[in-house]
Amino acid sequence: MKFELVKLSYAVSDLEPVISRQTVEFHHGKHLQTYVNNLNNLIQGTKFEDAGLEIIVRESEGAMFNNAGQVLNHNLYFTQFSPAGGGEPSGKLSAAINAAWGSSDNFRKEFEAAGVSLFGSGWVWLAKDRDGKLSIVREANAGNPVTKGLTPLLGFDVWEHAYYLDYQNRRVDHLKDLWKIVDWTAVGNRY
Ligand code: MN
Questions:
Q1: How many Å lie between the centroid of ligand 1 and the Cα of residue 102?
Q2: In CATH, what class is 91-190?
Q3: Can you give the pTM of this predicted structure?
Q4: 71 CA to middle of ligand 1, Å?
Q5: Cβ contacts of residue 103 below 8 Å, gap of 6+?
Q6: The domain 21-78 is classified under which CATH number: 1.10.287.990, 3.30.1230.20, 3.30.70.360, 3.30.1950.10?
Q7: Which of 19, 98, 130, 181 is the least crowded, having the fewest Cβ atoms under 10 Å away?
């Protein structure tokens, strides 16, 4: 198999109470595993058989795009959290956030609002362009900012499977709580 399930650097219960053990087990172990399996099946015998994940996301469509996009999205998602997370961004990323939104508080408010107002399933991303300028990008379904030539730094999953077991319909509360487990060192390393 070409693509593999991304490994977690924390135990499945380590992100509680923000993301429960049950949600991690379903989200990582079932949903993401299914996207990985589907993608590995779909690329067989196509021009994407030996392609990197980002190339597939940028150049494919339909079921191939949906599954590749969701593998890329969740690889970023599951490697941006830590039980020791939270706090504030630092260094160059902090300066860029302050330049774009005035403060990290303001950034978080705008990011949450973008996630809450996204209708249906999708993602809200912090992304940078080639000059390092930051923006908040909303993507429906399996979308990722790489299709716009941007680099994703942080992504909140607003599909109901990401929070329904723990928060039911309260997407806004889930998004506000996610900041408690964001690993700003990991996010800063993507900048
Ligand atoms: Mn998801």
A1: 30
A2: alpha beta
A3: 0.97
A4: 9
A5: 97
A6: 1.10.287.990
A7: 130
Distance of CA 157 from the midpoint of ligand 1 (Å): 6
Nearest to 137 by CA among 119, 155, 121: 155
**pLDDT tens readout for residues 126-144:** 999 999 999 999 999 999 9
Cα(88) to ligand 1 centroid in Å equals 24
Residue range(s) occupied by CATH 1.10.287.990 in the chain: 21-78
- Tell me the per-residue pLDDT of 43-54, one tens digit each, with 9 for 90 and over: 999 999 999 999
The rounded Å distance from CA 141 to ligand 1 centre is 10
CB within 8 A of 108, min separation 6: which ones? Answer: 179
Please list the residue range(s) of the chain that carry CATH number 3.55.40.20: 91-190
